[in-house]
């Protein structure tokens, strides 16, 4: 009798612990480390600067980092397809240069010059994405290698066009409307990022082409057996990434009011870290638009917080590198936990 009274309570306790462990494991697989990192960043930077959590600073941070959000969405699409895009920073620089040069060369109305410049910038991004797609989809080269190579090519073209000198002469209306104008309390760049995010969410979750990107990234062989032409999907992914990167570059060019061949160098690191922190798998096939955006917002807040705390750019590079290591480690851990959950071991 005494043994029964001792052993009976232990079974529910063990079951309770197992249930809690399973719940935590599933929660980690679903949301990753982003909530923990976000709360930690908010606490740390609030303690370091009284201005960090003010409304004006947060609105300003959203405006300043809207291009990071759009660039992260570009990286998100490529990562979903099972690849990488290390040329995002160089595409940003090249698009900035071509956009500014096209506007400065127009002598008509400001509206016409702005339209021509934006069109040239978007076409530049599309061509860059097509070049990457040619290497990955047609030549079957490793995405890491081909985008690393094209990054050097695109950067070299941008520097050759400008000789390293900023491009001036854009209409003032361009920066006024696309860089600093507010609508309902939020900057135009923020609204554009929201529209782009909604459009991409609809595309990825409600269209056959979007589902094919998930399929190719998750299991290319199975997707091919199902009739999915992987070269078409990869071409679509890299061209979409090029156009999205171009959109972000146009907004950044409007904010800095010049065409610069030296911008965007940190974007490959920032966008990969943001996407992976947001739960996008480095192995492809897993991730969501919303979580990728939250990861980009986290990176933007970290950069903004370090700026307010007057942390030098050298230390900022170290911090972003550490964040990327944490993100990659968390991604691998999530894969293991997910496998354990599916196997019923957790």
Describe this structure in words.
The protein has helices spanning 2-7, 10-31, 34-48, 55-64, 66-80, 88-104, 110-138, 143-162, 172-178, 188-206, 208-218, 220-225, 230-256, 267-277, 289-308, 313-343, and strands at 182-183, 186-187. The protein is an all-alpha fold. The chain has one domain: ABC transporter involved in vitamin B12 uptake, BtuC (Orthogonal Bundle), CATH 1.10.3470. A two-stranded antiparallel sheet has the order 1-2. Helix 2 (10-31) packs across helix 16 (313-343), helix 5 packs across helix 14 (267-277) and helix 7 packs antiparallel against helix 8. The relative contact order is 0.18.
Q: Percent range for helical residues?
A: over 70%
Q: Distance between the terminal alpha carbons, to the nearest Å?
A: 33 Å
Total of domains:
1
CATH architecture: Orthogonal Bundle
Oligomeric state of the chains?
single chain
Strand order, largest beta sheet: 1-2
Under CATH, the topology can be stated as ABC transporter involved in vitamin B12 uptake, BtuC
Principal-axes shape call? globular
How many strand units? 2
- Structure classification: mainly alpha
Which blocks of ≥5 consecutive residues have pLDDT under 50?
none
- Report on the biggest sheet: 2 strands, antiparallel
Evaluate the radius of gyration: 23 Å
Sequence of secondary-structure elements: HHHHHHHHHEEHHHHHHH
Average pLDDT score:
88
* Number of alpha- plus pi-helical segments: 16
Beta fraction of the residues? under 5%
Class in CATH? Mainly Alpha
